[in-house]
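Dear support,

We are seeing what looks like truncated structure output for some complexes. This example has two components. We would appreciate it if you could run it in full and send us the complete token output so we can diff it against ours.
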Amino acid sequence: MELDWLLALPLPENMPRQRVLYHRLREAILSGRLAAGTRLPASRSLATSLKLARNTVLFAYEQLVAEGCLLADRQGTRVALLPVCAMGPSSSGRGTAVPLKLSSRAAAALQPEPAREAAVLPFAPGTPDYGAFPFRTWRACLERAWRDAGWRQLGYAAHGGDPALRAAMAAHLTTIRGLAVDPAQIVITSGTQAALDLCARLLADHGDTVWVENPGYLAARVAFGLAGLRVHDIPVDSEGLAPSEEDWRGHSPRLIMITPSHQYPTGRVMSLSRRLSLIERARQASAWIIEDDYDSEFRRTGPAPPALFGLQPDVPVVYVGTFSKTLYPGLRLGYLVLPHAIAADFARATTQATRPGQGVEQRALADFIERGYYTAHLRRMRARYGARQVALRIALKAAFGRSVELSGGEAGLHLVMWLPEGICDTEVAARAAALGLGVRALGSYTRAPMTCNGLVLGYGNLEEGMIAEAVQRLVVAVESQVIPPHEN
Amino acid sequence: MELDWLLALPLPENMPRQRVLYHRLREAILSGRLAAGTRLPASRSLATSLKLARNTVLFAYEQLVAEGCLLADRQGTRVALLPVCAMGPSSSGRGTAVPLKLSSRAAAALQPEPAREAAVLPFAPGTPDYGAFPFRTWRACLERAWRDAGWRQLGYAAHGGDPALRAAMAAHLTTIRGLAVDPAQIVITSGTQAALDLCARLLADHGDTVWVENPGYLAARVAFGLAGLRVHDIPVDSEGLAPSEEDWRGHSPRLIMITPSHQYPTGRVMSLSRRLSLIERARQASAWIIEDDYDSEFRRTGPAPPALFGLQPDVPVVYVGTFSKTLYPGLRLGYLVLPHAIAADFARATTQATRPGQGVEQRALADFIERGYYTAHLRRMRARYGARQVALRIALKAAFGRSVELSGGEAGLHLVMWLPEGICDTEVAARAAALGLGVRALGSYTRAPMTCNGLVLGYGNLEEGMIAEAVQRLVVAVESQVIPPHEN
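Here is the complete output from our reference environment:
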């Protein structure tokens, strides 16, 4: 029997030579090219004809016998009779093939993506200053954590996360954020997305309604959509989330997702009376408020506004924080702060839902906080981002006129520049992208009937010296809007 | 006005002294203790009476004015009129408080937990040998990755994960597992739990049926339950998953979760004809097979059985792998291998669903694999775990008799010791736990009407020298079963 074709075709890279025959024989049997009952040559003669070591042939035969593809008997080796379906994908017909596509909920929840990866382009929002990251002190903390690492750090995390990190964060939040929390209320997560996903699955059921801000944070919509929640948009006005009576009555929420300290993306601050009303109404509706406090660490005008979480005892609020902006996104660590009544259950459920780990990194972060490096880094970055924000504001006013409306500069890493009617933000953003800018259109965060027209300008990773040039490019992107294309 | 009580009560630890007055005043205003309209003393006189620096009082007043708690006018400072709900939680009444509990799906999906944390007790399943982890080479890889880390590593991960890691894993899987995959088919995850959760949300919709093995891996049930899937148990026999016609017709699956190479927990191997039939039927039912290949790296009797993923081209199979057992669980890295037709969509969806990162660790792992450390570590651990398995098998036969039925020793890190009728595995496991053993009852992985009676004995973290003593404790746990308690 002629079996040269077994070795003829181009082979997958990296496959060890002695596995090729085994792999090809199996393929031939499963595809039906070698029919059931076919007798194979003796190993010695096949080895000679294919110029292989006899051991290679023996390995292939023995392995395929073990797997049930070949049968060995006194007469030699023959191809086993396998179920009809073994004869390749054609036997089942193309019409019955699985539609290789994503689930309906995934298709519905996923957001359109910018055509170009914008992570480090000028004005890309949500990006910290990578160059200013304190590599040396962080690596020293990591090295100390590795030196002391035992099974506790190498294994799955304890309920709620590393005890030292929970304690360090409780102290930090009390000192810096004025939240009187204890370590048992803290659950370490692998970032804000994981935190929102946990809230969606552990605090809400399929079909429950979640309120999101409009305009608002797109990734939250993804988490809630994938968890099977009904996403209901609530407009944001100058005082923050502004639900109507119709919203409360007709779309009673189970979860209310807000960014009260620095609304994303508009940068507005929720007023105190709005906060208190929201807590009261949420209580009445048996709803949870998810308070995403994603950038209060970089508030420059005095302390951050008081978190809803700490306004009253036992409020139905889950406070979400992250190290993505204060340290770096790839660290994948964040935290939730929960009311006492549910903290232990939530921590245990988190363990089962996500099987968290990252014990070495958690220990290193606890060390980094305890030694004061974290507070020092925050102080340094607050000043640096503050200076950038001022410089950007001046450059924008110089370029677009003193009447240009800017908001959101009190905290965080981005400004919003509102655009007058007649200049379309999504078109500006597209032109800006072509010019190498990471600016996002406010409209892309907004759902009808709400309309918002403006640009979200991140300055976290934009050095002061680059601002003038980046703003010049932005001017081109904006001005090319009012010039009809045929005049170019 | 007497305001000494503002500083009287014990204060939260860690709160800076200058924030105490601010914090207490706010509390008093929000709780209604200081009524709307109340005039506060001038800052200078309050500072004198409380023995505080005047700046501390000014800070508190200014901050509370900014927040809307106080109003400043020509006559001085007074408490603002806040919404009725501001008067503390009592105003809303206890009856309307949010029930601070987990969602129904969480309550339904969560599994009972062992009373005692068993991670490093003798016989705890799923635990690698922490002491044998190659700390030195791994830390060297991490240090190299940190030295070269830029925004790509510090930021969110690229779609599908670090390109170098995807390439290294594609080559590794081709060499070691005989899977001809290319890097574009690989999606790096933060472990198996994340992988199962992604499959549940991205490939199935709420109410869809997922088949799980019975007995089977409990954490998979949690992931599927939290994603809103209907979990349907399929019995496992000596050839693997054994669905009936009634299962196919009455409980048509969208996902089929299996551990064909080393069934968890029984250790059985799915036969080739069962694999081929399952693929064929899954195609007809438009179902995805999730192939969790969690410990094939430690197969000792020749190469691992061929993965379903590679049996035929374009099979509706998602292959799940992890580094939790080959390296350490806390690393939180694993991978999916997907058919070409869906790989790019799945990678993009994963980015949006989880916003992954861990770029430095991913780069270090790619380096670790490329330099051959990974293969060398696997080889070393395969031999070590193999020796432990043999020693454990001998010790069990010596202790319980030669007829004791053991299964699952061909691969992985655990054996199953089947128990005769009359000895109840859950009772033995409870007694064993009291004796400091991490053994799990086979029954705890089993759902009625299926019954399995046996013990799952992990030996990954059990040094050979400790086996005899651990088995002696196990004998006590088993034998105390047949002696009625009153004879003790």
